[in-house]
Each structure stands twice: as C-alpha cells, then as structure tokens.
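Please fill in the sequence for the structure shown.

STRUCTURE ENCODING:
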C-alpha cells in the first residue's frame, strides 16, 4: 500500500455509529480511520485484555472532536488538530463526536480488534 482513503479502507469493526476501518500499511504497521460518537466508551470491550486496557501503541492525528484516554497513570484528553502517541495500556472515551487516523503494529492491533469484536458481538 502506498496510499489509502477512509472510503477505500475496509471496515474492521462497527458497532452502531462507532467504526474502525483498518488496512495493512506495509511493513509491520496498519493505518486505521476511527469514528466514535460522543459517549463511546471502549472500556467494557477491552475487559479481558492485559490490565483491561488496549495493549497496542498508537501514533495518530485527531481530525475532529475530543477523546479522553484512560490509563493506569491517569487520564489525558486529546482534541482536533493534535498529533498523538498513545502508549500501551489505555481505554478511549469519546467526549464529543470524534474522528482520528492512527498507525499501529498490525499483529498486536489485529488481536485487539478481534477481542473487541468478540466482546461486542
């Protein structure tokens, strides 16, 4: 893959209006386009993973809205226009309708997505 758009990236997970589209970006990384409506709390879907949190790192950019990242070391808020790095051990909560693009290690994040899909049915 040399480039992709949100519309050209396959849906990996959808639950109501929450959506994650994911594509292998080459090498060992994947790109994801994520939409979470206000109030989306991923904590319940992450239960059963190490520490009940996402064990995958993420590098990305917030396109729209605000999101709170809950971690064992405290909460952090990210908003539109900010680039970010999320270390392993987090659970996102959408404070507003939000959209972001992120890059994650494919193998690790594929396991997280499979777990979330299993938990959310």
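FILLED IN BY: designer on duty
SEQUENCE:
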């Amino acid at each position: 893959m040399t480039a992709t758009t949100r519309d050209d990236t396959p849906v990996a997970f959808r639950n109501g209006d929450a959506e994650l589209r994911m594509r292998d970006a080459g090498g060992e990384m994947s790109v994801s386009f994520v939409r979470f409506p206000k109030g989306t709390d991923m904590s319940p879907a992450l239960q059963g993973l190490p520490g009940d949190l996402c064990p995958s790192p993420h590098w990305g950019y917030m396109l729209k809205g605000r999101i709170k990242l809950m971690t064992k070391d405290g909460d952090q808020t990210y908003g539109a226009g900010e680039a970010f790095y999320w270390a392993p051990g987090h659970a996102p909560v959408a404070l507003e309708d939000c959209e972001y693009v992120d890059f994650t290690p494919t193998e690790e994040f594929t396991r997280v997505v499979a777990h979330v899909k299993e938990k959310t049915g």
